[in-house]
UniProtKB/TrEMBL annotation:
<keyword id="KW-0963">Cytoplasm</keyword>
<dbReference type="InterPro" id="IPR050687">
    <property type="entry name" value="Dynein_IC"/>
</dbReference>
<protein>
    <submittedName>
        <fullName>Uncharacterized protein</fullName>
    </submittedName>
</protein>
<dbReference type="GO" id="GO:0045504">
    <property type="term" value="F:dynein heavy chain binding"/>
</dbReference>
<dbReference type="GO" id="GO:0036159">
    <property type="term" value="P:inner dynein arm assembly"/>
</dbReference>
<keyword id="KW-0677">Repeat</keyword>
<keyword id="KW-0853">WD repeat</keyword>
<dbReference type="GO" id="GO:0045503">
    <property type="term" value="F:dynein light chain binding"/>
</dbReference>
<dbReference type="GO" id="GO:0060294">
    <property type="term" value="P:cilium movement involved in cell motility"/>
</dbReference>
<dbReference type="GO" id="GO:0036156">
    <property type="term" value="C:inner dynein arm"/>
</dbReference>
Length: 404
């Protein structure tokens, strides 16, 4: 027990030494200097701790022109000791790195003053970021270890049998022999034909050949039948109606009110009459141009990875998804209470006004490499129905609001 406690303390000390070594790696690079930035300077450079930089993302680029303006306009500027290096700096942006330290009340930063130091610092930061990401991946995705046998596999192999047991072995393909038929008479004896009689005596139904067209039909009547149409069957006179001329001005108000009341029914019947003609013989058309509906293919989708933020998307449905045009590992997902593709069988019991005022409508930017937390959280005053990136500028994202 004591040995275990000593080892754990040694491991903690070793981890602390490693973290200090990583911090000293940046300070040991030629062209990298430590600098203390007050809060007002951080806000001026747009490099505030907790906003633009953090412990997880400590590095950020700032404009060189903003640094030079602060150097020239402020009497005791924090950049005054590095005036010569800043004037000789070639690029327009300066790389700053936040140094997390809870022991001091000041905010220290690394500042790269040469192009070579920027390249070396970026390489070390990328390596450190990859190590942290791989460490998180190893913690979340566990790989199964090897199975340790305790002796039960011997009994399992003894009691196991093969799924297929060979009973007969023969040559394949089997050659076919020529069949020889011979005449066998019924008078030969017991090997003649045998009549098989059923125990139930069923009723025999005799079917007669129909030679007369009126054998099973009612007698022909010369009177007008009930289903015979009284209007002409000629196609040119099928819809020819006779009516008396009336003055529409006398009935204009009644017609307007009647149309407003029954306009939906009129439109539906006009659509049906335009598509279907109940008095046209179209059997030959259907026989000549028979069209069957195409069979829909069934898609079987297997889940590969799950991206979900329970805190922001609980009880929500996916409404729209779009991929970034240049960064193939980024995609944007919008969520809504009821998806547009979801069929609501019953009337919704939620309060739309309360949901629109008090609930959030998140639009999350996810990365394929990180499925635990979204990279960016966007808020919208209403639910977003469609999303689309600008194909020429990946920084522009357009969304369409839902009507209801």
């Amino acid at each position: 027990m004591n040995l275990t406690m000593i080892n754990s303390e040694n491991m903690k000390k070793t981890k602390r030494k490693k973290s200090k070594t990583k911090i000293n790696n940046y300070a040991g690079i030629e062209g990298v200097e430590k600098i203390v930035l007050p809060d007002d300077v951080q806000k001026l450079l747009m490099c505030e701790v907790g906003e633009q930089v953090s412990v997880q993302e400590p590095w950020a680029y700032v404009q060189k022109q903003t640094v030079m303006d602060n150097l020239l306009t402020t009497e005791n500027s924090v950049f005054l000791p590095y005036k010569v290096e800043l004037e000789n700096y070639e690029t327009d942006k300066i790389l700053l790195g936040y140094i997390p330290d809870e022991t001091d009340d000041i905010d220290e930063f690394y500042m790269c003053l040469t192009a070579e130091s920027v390249i070396k610092t970026a390489a070390i930061a990328k390596k450190h970021r990859d190590e942290q990401r791989q460490k998180l991946q190893d913690i979340v995705c566990k790989t199964p270890g090897e199975w340790t046998s305790l002796g039960s596999d011997i009994n399992t192999n003894k009691n196991n049998r093969a799924l297929l047991e060979v009973l007969i072995e023969t040559q394949y393909p089997i050659p076919k022999d020529k069949t020889k038929f011979r005449v066998h008479w019924a008078k030969a004896g017991d090997t003649s034909y045998t009549e098989l009689l059923s125990t139930d005596n069923g009723d025999s139904i005799l079917k007669k050949r129909i030679d007369n067209s009126v054998q099973v039909a009612p007698s022909h009547a010369h009177n007008e039948a009930q289903t015979v149409c009284t209007f002409p069957k000629n196609a040119t006179a099928n819809y020819q109606y006779n009516y008396d001329e009336i003055d529409p001005v006398l009935f204009q108000s009644k017609l307007d009110s009647y149309y407003v009341k029954h306009s939906l029914s009129f439109n539906n019947w006009l659509v049906i009459n335009g598509l279907f003609n109940l008095y046209t013989l179209d059997y030959h058309v259907l026989a000549a141009k028979s069209i069957l509906p195409p069979s829909r293919k069934k898609f079987h989708i297997n889940e590969y990875m799950t991206y979900s933020d329970i805190q922001r998307c609980k009880g929500r449905m996916v409404e729209a998804v779009t991929w970034h045009p240049t960064m193939s590992w980024l995609f944007v997902v919008s969520y809504s209470t009821f998806s547009s593709y979801y069929y609501i069988r019953n009337e919704a019991d939620d309060d739309e006004v309360f949901r629109a005022v008090h609930t959030l409508n998140p639009v999350l930017v996810w990365s394929v490499n990180d499925y635990l937390m979204p990279k960016l959280v966007l808020h919208s005053p209403r639910e977003v129905m469609h999303l689309s990136f600008c194909p020429y500028d990946g920084n522009i994202l357009i969304g369409e609001y839902k009507l209801f």
